[in-house]
Specification:
mainly alpha, 0% strand, elongated
């Protein structure tokens, strides 16, 4: 069981590091939007800057999914969940992770990888043609959902360990 907890700790460190990157992206996004506002004030339109701010926002959101799951700050319908015992909550959370979140992430990552590879093969650029290497932006979806799948595994392992050893503090 200690090995499982070490694995979960390592993956959670990855989630924390990725969350720090998303904070950096938030600052970059703020600067981009400020630059766009100033440029539009002087009637200067830069579509590259607009595209890049959109992709920066998307990457920031995708990178915060695992951290949100780790911190249990996601949206949940507490209609039934609030009445469950601690053991029932652990079992339901384990099943939700294994039956819904993890498979969904794998499906999205698989299809996202297919789209990314296709984009790479045809040399796709942004819709306005100003940003080349569009596959890099499509890879954000794959990375984001793989990280979310890893965090889902971590949550499952934590619930599994808590069910095996009720005295263990998670």
């Amino acid at each position: 069981m200690q090995i499982l907890l070490k694995i979960t700790s390592g993956i959670e460190k990855i989630s924390d590091g990725v969350a720090r990157i998303s904070i950096l992206l938030l600052w970059i996004l703020c600067l981009l939007i400020f630059g766009l506002a100033v440029a539009l004030n002087f009637s200067y339109v830069n579509s590259q800057l607009e595209d890049f701010s959109l992709y920066c926002f998307a990457l920031m959101i995708l990178l915060t999914f695992p951290y949100t799951l780790k911190q249990d700050r996601h949206v949940r319908l507490d209609l039934f969940y609030i009445r469950y015992s601690k053991r029932a909550k652990s079992i339901s959370w384990l099943l939700i992770n294994l039956c819904f979140i993890f498979p969904f992430c794998l499906v999205i990552a698989k299809y996202g990888l297919d789209f990314m590879i296709h984009s790479y093969r045809i040399g796709e650029s942004s819709p306005n043609g100003k940003i080349p290497y569009y596959f890099i932006f499509k890879s954000f979806v794959v990375v984001g959902f793989i990280l979310l799948a890893l965090q889902s595994v971590v949550e499952s392992l934590k619930m599994f360990c808590s069910l095996l050893n009720k005295k263990q503090e998670i």
